[in-house]
Amino acid sequence: MNPETRVVHIPLPAVEDSRPMSVPIYQTSGFIFDDPAVMGDAMGRPDGAFVYGRYTNPTVRALESAVSGLEGGAHGLATGSGMGAINTVLLGLLKPGDHLVAQRSLYGGTAAMINDLVDRFGITVTYVPENEPDALRAAVRTETRLVYLETISNPMTLVADLPGMCAVASELGILSVVDNTFATPLLCRPLEHGADIVLHSTTKYLSGHTDIVGGLAVFADPALYQKVWHFAIELGASAEPFTSWLTLRGLQTLALRMERHCSNTEYLATRLAAHPAVTAVHWAGLPSHPSYELGRKLLSGFGGVFSFDLAGGRAAGERFMGAVRLAHLAPSLGGVTTHVLHPATTSHRSLSVEELSRSGIGEGTVRIAVGIEHPEDLWADVLQALS
Ligand SMILES: *Cc1c(COP(=O)(O)O)cnc(C)c1O
Predict the structure, then answer these.
(1) Do 21 and 91 sit in the same domain of this protein?
(2) Do the record's keywords include Iron (predicted)?
């Protein structure tokens, strides 16, 4: 062969007798077949041979299996972002005329997405509190397809009554979909409480190092997975091999990181609750929080995000953001470093003061996504910013 041909046809290394110690990155867009019938078969089902990157990929599949296994599911479906997973599931299951019930306090992107479903896709929605199974029962009608919940909400850390809500859903024949991003399968496994589908933004704790954007859906029922998988390959919100590899690498330290996120958060939340500049601390791990008792039953830790209200209102919130040194003013959460955010001027800026207060967010509310630094260094930073 001529060099022009040889540079493009690179032989694969033979690995039959060697097993890698970590999951290799299969950085390939597709796979080569000997037999068109085998290739055709692989294109029609998710459990056949690997065929094309948008369908799945061995590195991506390793991540899907790992997270699905942790959640106790039958199958996982990795996507290019958390919103990609949410959209894949909602668009894959709902059609015009359908109705869904969602909890009132939702992640901002999800709330915007549901507004879009209502405005442009002829879907209707009823909002209920995350812990009122009777309100869910009253909201369900013949065209209701699913209930949408979040294990721990942002930024007030309300805990959803998963057993109560999922029991009503299953009794009435609708699906329960739960965003488990804030809890991770280390703190709560919604499928064990009756959920049908679990969603993750792997951008957060599962990858854990603020270096990727990704998402994942886990299904209890293989048939439901197959249905959504067929839609997923049409939608094309698929995950990348390298991103999946970084997520797998992060996942290996999830248990160690979650322990530290939770203990650091308890350290900061307890001290802030006693500080004179702070009027309230919102973390389900504090006995004063409305979700404390429920959280003790459902969670094996209360998570690494909390918020608190500053007596000085909006001006104090903005000043605090400018004064932290170790913590960063930054979006997102779940990484090894601590991030602060002022919801009233950033993530929730489109809400009016009334809408803010309905979701429990004040003008002086500060959200902290606590990292894994030494707790005393974090407390020293918060104290100097407060003063
Ligand atoms: C971040 C987040 C999402 C969206 O995930 P992206 O990866 O940013 O698309 C959805 N739900 C929750 C609870 C989140 O924190």
Answers:
(1) yes
(2) no
